Amino acid sequence: GVDDFFLSIMSWLFQNKATDDATSSVVPLLLQRLRTTTTIADKRDALTQLAEVAEADLKHLGADGLISLLETMIEFRHDLECMKSTLEILNTITDHKACKGDFLELLVQTDLKAPVLLLDLLKMEDFYVRFPTIQLLTRLLEHNPDASISHILNDPNGVMSLVDLLEDSRESIRNEGLLLLKALVAKHEEMQKIVSFTNAFESLFKVIKDEGGADGTIVVEDCLSVISHLVRNDVSCRSFREMGYCRSLYPLLAPAASAAVSGARRLSSVAISVVQIIQSLLQGSTSKESEMEATKKEICDSRLMEGLCSITFNP
To answer: Cα 3 vs. chain centroid, distance in angstroms?
Structure first.
């Protein structure tokens, strides 16, 4: 089939990158051990050793080795140590300038559906599984957005598992998950619709509050950027409006409005992000005149128009 042909081409490309005799490398021996061993202890040991040598010997890993790693993820996905080592190897080879494009393309194209396997791993709460899994998903999305998003949408729990990362108490994981979500919804209309019907808005505003609201950091701006992308879609815009989230925007704009009345000339980044959301809300309401009127009314009732006027008409 097409996938077999693709795999054969990738295997040929990887093999032709080799300049040394494969017998001088320990990687083929470790891969053979990984494929044939019958004990979990040997499997873990082979993966640990592969993780140690993978970066220095990429040319002997090849397409077949990558397939073996993915098969390990399927067969031993509930073994924490196996997953840690496998993810370490995958992140190493997909971050290597010389070969990362080849490896990433194989990951998204193979029948083993690497993005779906990674989504399943997000169920494991261990930091050294969840964090590198998010990193790998981000790389796949950057490399081939259409194929990666297609895999995520075809997984019944795919979108929800990504939105749930916003609830992780570990800031580094939550923030990486936020950036991944931001990239996912930036340009994909179907993704925007699905995300808006999860608890995404509630989770995003919780993060905004935890990060200081109007006085918040870049994390607040990232949350507001996700919201702005979401509400450009008419379905998501209606959902945001009907759930009353416009009222959650005013406290983020109010300090800038007060400052403008007092003579301040510069808007904070958070205030600018809120203004962009208001623009996106209006953009997402153009499908029907009734939708536009409902959005305008909600903007006024939420005092957002009051805040905008204070900013606009004070020097």
So the answer is: 26
